Each structure stands twice: as C-alpha cells, then as structure tokens.
Amino acid sequence: MTAYLLNLAQLAAIFGLLSVSLNILIGYGGIFSVAHAVFFGLGAYAGAHVALDLFPDLLLAALASAVIAGVLSAALALPALRVRGEYFVIASLGLQMLATTVFTEAQAITGGLGGLVGIPPPTLFGFTLAGPLVFLFCCLAFLALALALVRQLMRGSFGRALMALRDSETAAEALGKNVALIKTLAVVLGTAFAGIAGALFAFQEEFVNVESFTLDQSVLILAMVIIGGAGTLSGPLIGTLLLLLLPAALTFIPFIPPTDIGAVQQLIYGLAMTLLMIFRPAGLAGRAMGRR
Amino acid sequence: MSALLSARGLTRHFGGINAVEAVDLDLAPGIITALVGPNGAGKTTLFNLITGHLAADAGVVELFGQRITGHAPHRIARMGLARSFQDLRLFARMSVRDNVLAATEPVSWFWQPGGARAARERAARGAQALERTGLAPLARAEAADLAYAERKFLSLARILASGARIWLLDEPASGLDPASRARFTTLLRAAVADGVTICLIEHNLDIVIELADRIVFLDQGRKLAEGPPESILGDPRLAAIYFGERA
Fold this sequence. Notes:
The structure holds two protein chains of two kinds.
Chain A: H1 2-28, H2 36-53, H3 58-80, H4 86-105, H5 107-110, E1 116-117, E2 123-124, E3 127-128, H6 132-154, H7 157-167, H8 169-174, H9 179-205, E4 207-208, H10 215-228, H11 235-250, H12 261-279
Antiparallel strand pairs in A: 1-4, 2-3
Helix pairs in contact in A: 1-6, 1-9, 1-10, 1-11, 2-3, 2-4, 2-9, 3-9, 6-9, 7-9, 10-11, 11-12
Chain B: E1 5-14, E2 17-27, E3 32-36, H1 43-51, E4 58-63, E5 66-67, H2 73-78, E6 81-83, H3 96-104, H4 115-132, H5 148-162, E7 166-170, H6 178-193, E8 197-201, H7 205-211, E9 214-219, E10 222-227, H8 229-233, H9 236-242
Parallel strand pairs in B: 3-8, 3-9, 6-7, 7-8
Antiparallel strand pairs in B: 1-2, 1-4, 4-5, 9-10
Helix pairs in contact in B: 3-4, 3-5, 4-5
Pfam families (chain A): BPD_transp_2
Transmembrane segments (chain A): 6-26, 58-80, 87-104, 124-150, 185-203, 215-233, 240-257, 263-282
Organism (chain A): Acidicaldus sp
C-alpha cells in the first residue's frame, strides 16, 4: 500500500511539473498547445538514453532532456507561432500526430512500440537514489524549482509582457513588445520543463514507450491546467491532483466493478468538465463567475 | 520646423477598395493634428500603415528622419511612436498597474536592463502616468473591471508611461461624459506642453475645435484638404461630405 501511494505521489509530482509547464504557454501566454506530450516524450527518450548509454545521473538526464525539448520546440515553434489562436491549436495537433508516428517508427531511437526498457535507478553525484521516497523528494524538488521560477518570472517584466500579448497581441506590439520572441521564449521554457518531467518519468517507470506520449496524454495535461485554473500558480497543481487521484479513488469504491471503472471515470470527467465550464470557466483556482 | 513624422504617397488597397490612396501626412512637433472624415475615409487604416500593423502597397514613412517603412510594429513603437485603438485593447486580465508597467518595459527578454535603479525609475514613471490620468486609486483593479471612461484613460496612461514622443490616438474621446471629456482635454494639453506631438482621429467636432491646431480631411482614402481648423471646418464642400450630403 505504501509503495502504491509513493508511486502515486511521484506521478503527481511529475504530472504537476508537466501541467505547471503547460500553464506557462496556455495560462500566461494564451498559446493553446495540444502537443505537450510530444516534449514530455522527447524528454523521456533523451533521459532514458542518457541513463542507458552514458550515466544514470538525474541532473545530467534532466539537463539533456530540457535542452533537447527546448531546442526542438524552438525550431518547431518559430514557424508555427506565426499563426494565431485556433490555427496554432491545429498546427500543434498536427505536430502531436506527426510525433506519435515518429516515436512509433523511429525504432533505433525510441524502441518503437516495445519502447526502451531496463532504465537503471537514477544517481546523483555518484550516489544511487535508492528507494521511492528519495526519488519522490527529487521530483518534488524539480516541481518546487519550476513553481518558484514561474512565480518569479510572472511577477516580473517577462510575465507582464507574456500576459499582455495573451490579452492583446496588437496592443502589446504597439507598446514595443517583440511578440514572436516572447512567445518563443515562453514555449522554450515551458517545453524544457516538460522535458525534465519526461526524464523523471523515464526513471520512475524504468521504461518508456510511445503510449505515454499520445494525444490522449496531451489532452489530459491540458485538462489538468484548465480544470485547475489556467494562469494561476496553484491551479495546475489542483487540476493534476484531481485528475490523478480520481481514478485512484474510484478503485477503492467497492460497488464499482473493476471492469467498469474506466467508463465511470469518463462519465465523471465529462460531467465535471461540463459543469466547470458552465459555472467556473476560469477553473477551480481561477476567478469565480459574477465578479466581473 | 521639420516634421517628426512624415508619410509620402501611402497607399493600401483591399481588393478593389482603395482604403488609402497616395496620402501625404506631416506631423509637426508639439502640435495636435486631427484626422477628420466620414466613416470609411481610411483614417484608422492610415494609422495602421504608419505604425506597421498593416503593410503599405506603396509609399514611405519617416520617423525622426529615419525611414521606417516595412519595420515591425514593435520596432516602430520603440522609436517613440505610440498608438491607441478604437476598441482600446487593454490587457484585460492584468491589473491597471501592470498594464502601465508593461508599457515602461522596453526589452522583450526574461529581464530588463539597468537593474534595480532602472526598475525604480520605470515604476515611478508608471505611477506618474496613473496619477496624471486619475487612475492611481484603481491601480490594483483588474482592467476588465474598470468603467468605460476609466478604460479609455488606462489606454492613455499606457501611452503616457511608454514615454513616446508621438501619440496616434484613435477616437480617444468617443463615449466620454462631459466631466471625463474635460479630464481628457486637460491631459492632452499637458502632454503637448511636455513636448508630445499628437495626431488624433475624432468624430466629435467640438473636441476637434477645442484641441486641434491642424486638421487633415480624408474621404474615401484620399486626402482632400489640410489646414487650420477654421478653414477646414468652415468649408461647405467638406461639411457636405462629412455629413453625408454628397452631390
């Protein structure tokens, strides 16, 4: 039981990091991406290769994953960010579909559907991070670092510029903001943290394959941000806890047969999202309706 | 005195519509120029061409003696040309203070140059802009929560805080009550006294008469006349066009 809860807590910290990173794009930048799982996957594969082919050093793997996800996102984002709003959503959807195919087919790098197996336990400065509790603290440390950085940046001039272009790109430009540069920086920052989450995920699961980086995963991360409250610091964490703990909690309800848990979960998700969008569209941590 | 901003032969067509056709415009320093004309005359399009929000089909724009044709809007803004929009385009989910602070921060990077001292100077400039527009008591309010007149003043506060030397204002006084209008004219006169050059689009001729030193009259994308207010507004031909009484 303790091992199960620790595993759940590790996943919550990793997905918390993912949703906090997507919140930089969606909540603060108004850049709606449904391809965040792509950068999560790139980070996971990069981290797995560092661990398998070099050393399983957590910081090295996290750094490599952040750099690969961040640099590739910049290359992909620069042309895509020229389009606005719903067109970017479609462009990111295309990227997600493309990446899923590449992850499946590029067997030499990703292991294809079989994935990369046997990822060794992580080390830090030569010491093996033995035990799930130690690894949980490492995940929480990365999450805390991301939260502190996002809080600091969003209270400063970069945050103001990013939120300004979210609210009106043309007005931001008219006040001297380089919209393309600000968007690119936000995308690189957000996807670099998604890459780190991927590296942590690779160590946590000891195995990675394409099934963790599909459109379903991107939509789940998006739902975490929106349900919790996009553009707030705590919202993505609330959304993550809710969407990760709900399926876990359902397994403890005795009168739901295990085979029906998936269907019940979908019903609850659907109902919750519909009610939330009607009564609290800014998310659980966002502004309540009626104040405006 | 030579113009701070000079446009020559600016032209923009949308399909078969000549939105702006070979328009020349000079903004002389320290005065208020009003762009006047009926709806669809091309006034806002002219602003968009000058600020780089629209690419011109032909023509040249010079700002402070430098050619800015084809430059991105943010580059033109950083040279000291600020504009407002008819629909205001406030940063609605940000506080009033942050709307203004964003206008004082010139660099689109993770941090601004100059350290704490420059940050204090920017904060002081923002606070002064809020004081001058009467928005200081609302500094912590979210822009979306402001009343209509206060939203108008916030769009002016952003421009004021930006430190721009040339302001292009698109219908800045429309919908203002008389008291707010008086605040508005006082604010503009104070800005001009500080050396700001203003070009405004305005349909309210009382405000044009009260504020403008010079009028440029546009119709169907063409400049029909330019001169002091009394000569333009006293021209019966232009009055007929303005009020839709074409022959």
